[in-house]
């Protein structure tokens, strides 16, 4: 077991029910973050631009571990302090002033810290933040341009979504600049450089980067093959080149699932804890998340939050159909039938099927 330290700020697409405050259109984020490993805090200085807004309150998601220094409305040279209320789990309500220019785009600034002492332990000796899946103020399902500049000690590595457009080293620090022009979920990961094994591959002229916690080379090779093969398959299926210059696969201990966030797949070690036989059950989620790079991230969204359940069905059902097409090619027809039977059993476990008619039997 290596004595390593991993900090993960995981932003997942989790629905939020908004109250009486109005919804806004956030067009741009400019986020500067600095990790101080001695104080164990992440310092965040953020600007977000919103379209003209006539309401007096704005509800956003933000981790309740945040130590807020200031929230201001920027109007020219004026800096107007905004009142705010923290409510429910990881939600914040901004109170806007009575006199606000409702015909111009507005800029709101946030300054706050996130303490690293709110961590949950891991048997592996690697740690993750607790309840920091909303590390910056956002409105769920709102597509925005993100620029994230993160500074870390020079023995740390940082990952986020989009394209890495700059990396500067000096004064015992590393500074990364990430740009994502079309996303609503931008996670930030910080970890000691020796905490994970780094391997890079070339697929369809794109760099596919892997960060492994598992030291099993057989499992590593199987995952790399499946990720690269499915990446190439979906890239050819949709007939256009992948929109980012790299794709990253990050294994996170104690994370019980897989998620796609745009150029970055987060894959939990528990998914690969039992990879006996053909490994279909534990490796299938990896290609499912790869498929999301072309379907279900950024391209499908509603402003009407009441339609979110139907939207989630559209994202996941079509995406899994695409994944099953890849599985049939990669593992063969028997594996496809196996997946369909598993899905059918899962469906019948939770849905009343008394009035359904069988259209065809799975062989």
Can you tell me about this structure?
This protein has helices spanning about 215-235, 280-290, 310-330, 335-350; strands at about 5-10, 25-35, 40-50, 55-60, 65-75, 80, 85, 90-95, 105-115, 120, 130, 145-155, 155-160, 165-170, 175-185, 190, 195-205, 205-210, 245-250, 260, 265-270. The protein is α+β, with helices and mostly antiparallel strands and about 375 residues long. The strands form 5 sheets. It has an 8-stranded mixed beta sheet, with no helix packed on it. Strands 17-18-19-21-20 form a 5-stranded mixed beta sheet, with helices on one face. Strand 7 (about 85) and strand 8 (about 90-95) form a beta hairpin. Helix 1 crosses helix 3 (about 310-330) and helix 2 crosses helix 3. It is globular, with a radius of gyration of 22 Å. It starts with 5 loop residues before the first strand and ends in a 13-residue tail after the last helix. Residues about 10-20 and about 120-130 have low confidence and may be disordered.
Q: Descriptors for this entry?
A:
alpha+beta; 363 residues; 4 helices; eight-stranded mixed beta sheet; globular
């Amino acid at each position: 077991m290596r004595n390593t330290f991993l900090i993960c700020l995981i932003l997942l697409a989790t629905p939020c029910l908004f109250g009486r405050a109005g919804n806004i259109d956030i067009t741009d984020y400019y986020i500067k973050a600095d990790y101080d490993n001695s104080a164990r805090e992440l310092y965040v200085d953020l600007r977000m631009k919103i379209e003209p807004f006539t309401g007096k309150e704005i509800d956003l998601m933000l981790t309740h571990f945040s130590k807020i220094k200031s929230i201001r409305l920027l109007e020219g040279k004026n800096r107007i302090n905004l009142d705010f209320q923290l409510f429910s789990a990881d939600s914040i309500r901004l109170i806007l002033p009575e006199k606000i220019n409702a015909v111009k785009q507005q800029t709101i600034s946030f300054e706050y810290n996130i303490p690293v002492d709110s961590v949950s332990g891991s048997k592996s000796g690697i740690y993750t933040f607790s309840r920091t899946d909303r590390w910056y103020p956002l409105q769920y399902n709102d597509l925005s341009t993100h620029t994230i500049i993160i500074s870390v000690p020079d023995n740390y590595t940082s990952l986020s979504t989009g394209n890495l457009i700059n990396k500067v080293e000096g004064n015992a620090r590393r500074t990364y600049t990430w740009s994502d022009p079309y996303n609503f979920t931008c996670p930030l990961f910080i970890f000691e450089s020796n905490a994970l094994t780094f391997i890079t591959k070339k697929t369809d002229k794109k760099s596919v980067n892997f960060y492994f916690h598992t030291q099993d080379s057989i499992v590593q090779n199987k995952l790399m093959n499946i990720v690269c093969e499915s990446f190439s398959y979906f890239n050819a299926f949709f007939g256009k080149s992948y929109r980012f210059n790299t794709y990253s696969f990050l294994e996170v201990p104690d994370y019980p699932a897989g998620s796609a966030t745009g150029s970055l797949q987060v894959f939990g070690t528990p998914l690969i804890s039992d990879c006996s036989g053909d490994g279909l059950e534990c490796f299938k989620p990896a290609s499912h998340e790869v498929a999301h790079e072309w379907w279900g991230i950024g391209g499908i969204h509603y402003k009407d939050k009441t339609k979110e359940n139907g939207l989630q069905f559209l994202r996941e059902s079509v995406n899994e159909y695409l994944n099953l097409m890849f599985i049939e090619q990669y593992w063969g027809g028997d594996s496809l039938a196996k997946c369909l039977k598993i899905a059918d059993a899962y469906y019948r476990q939770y849905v009343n099927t008394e009035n359904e008619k069988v259209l065809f039997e799975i062989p």
